[in-house]
Design brief:
By secondary structure, this protein is α/β, with parallel strands linked by helices.
């Protein structure tokens, strides 16, 4: 197959869909890989590395979209990329469609086959292609939050870990999944006071076993969320409903009770955010202030560390792409129900129920769509 890797064009998005090592693996299997000129440069991968791996360097994105059977990206296609998609062309990337009405309609109109990293599952119901970027974003959330708490960033002017004579910051993490766990790794490492809120008692037990008395586990149904939020210095939003819009757990009214200069890092922003006052920002302009609370809502946080992120992402995605390129989408998806769960839009049909429900589209099961 011909596999195309265009340069990401979302602002400050410096990751790339394939590393040179991944390209080498695919070309050794007999596939042609087309990589856009300098597409991986900002992630530390130059054209010569891709050429040595067997890729062809292409100057224009249009030529990659025209000539490729599979398009491999990191972020969702922007409007001018959607226009280049062809009927029956496969696109394999993060899509986050439940928060993107226009993109969903554009993909429907393209009649392409759209497989989203974030809804591919494993046998335990986890999300193996979302997990590496959730881990990166979780770790970055506390780094970013600690920076935003500095006074010159309009924060409270406190050090996350405190100091002799000064208490550590109070960190509240919403959600004990991959984001929450990785946020806790950094927050506890920086010696903050860390609360983790989750609806699963079993998950909280796992986190307590992992972190011991370095965290304070909070079962959501038994927790006074208003009180915790009013007392926190840094709030990390890491809740997730796979493929669906994030629930708004923090309301505008709750925000009014927060301390002046406290910080919210809404990692769920690429799924609409879990804070009512959240709106997407970029690495160039990452924050804004509502009711004296600093909001950090960068929708592609891992793009800030593109080399680490690209390497971590490829380790997870390459086995699926290898199968897709070898067997085609029908056989690959029919043979693996977990891979099939990644199909969101197929030849004009919405095949992921949460996306169909979000925008009132007719839902067709993935099995029905590909058979």
């Amino acid at each position: 197959m011909k596999i195309g890797v265009p340069k990401e064009i979302k602002p400050q998005e410096n990751r790339i869909g394939l590393t040179p090592d991944s390209v080498k693996s695919l070309t050794l299997d007999g596939h042609d890989v087309l990589v856009e000129n300098n597409g991986g440069f900002e992630a530390g991968f130059d054209n010569d590395q891709y050429k040595s791996a067997g890729a062809k360097i292409i100057d224009k994105a249009e030529d990659i979209f025209n000539d490729s059977e599979i398009i491999v990206k990191v972020k969702e296609p922007l409007s001018n990329e959607v226009k280049m998609l062809r009927e029956d062309q496969i696109i394999f990337t993060y899509l986050h469609l439940a928060a993107a009405k226009e993109l969903t309609q554009g993909l429907i109109n393209s009649k392409s086959i759209c497989i989203a990293y974030e809804t591919v599952t494993d046998k335990n119901g986890r999300l193996p292609l979302l997990a590496p970027m959730s881990a990166v974003a979780g770790r970055m959330s506390v780094q970013a939050g600690a920076h935003c708490l500095e006074k010159n960033q309009k924060g409270r002017g406190i050090l996350l870990g405190g100091a002799p004579g000064g208490d550590p910051a109070n960190v509240v993490i919403l959600g004990g999944g991959v984001v929450g766990e990785n946020a806790a790794i950094i927050a506890t490492g920086m010696r903050a006071k860390v609360h983790i809120i989750d609806k699963s008692e079993e998950r909280l037990k796992q986190l307590t076993k992992m972190f011991g008395d370095k965290i304070i586990p909070e079962l959501s149904e038994k927790t006074d969320l208003n009180k915790l939020i009013s007392e926190c210095d840094l709030l990390v939003g890491g809740v997730l409903i796979p493929g669906a819009e994030a629930p708004k757990l923090v309301t505008k009214n709750m925000l009014k009770s927060m301390k002046r200069g406290s910080v919210i890092v809404d990692v769920a922003i690429d799924q609409g955010g879990c804070v009512e006052t959240s709106k997407p920002t970029t690495h160039a302009n990452p924050t804004y202030i509502v009711d004296d609370v600093v909001h950090y809502c960068v929708a592609n946080m891992p793009g800030g560390v593109p080399r680490t992120s690209t390497l971590a992402l490829n380790k997870a995605t390459l086995p699926f792409l290898t199968k897709l390129a070898k067997d085609g989408y029908k056989k690959s998806l029919n043979d693996d129900e977990n891979f099939l769960a990644g199909l969101n839009v197929c030849q004009g049909n919405v095949t992921y129920k949460a996306v169909a429900d979000a925008f009132g589209h007719k839902y067709i099961s993935s099995k029905e769509a590909i058979n």
